[in-house]
Write the structure tokens for this entry.
Amino acid sequence: MNKFVSGIALLLMPLLSIANDEVVAVAPQVDADPTGLIVFAVVLVGMIGGYAFVIWRNESKKKDAIK
């Protein structure tokens, strides 16, 4: 059984070297338009700023209600 397994391994070794020699076609890089990223960043920063403003406004209302 050991001879059989080692024989199969020896027979398959050339196939590995042939597979390594094959050139893999790489898809070309596509330059993406940055407009979507810029819009996303502006909306994200705007939402964070709006949330901070609402929190600040509510806290100032609570401080005024306590006085």
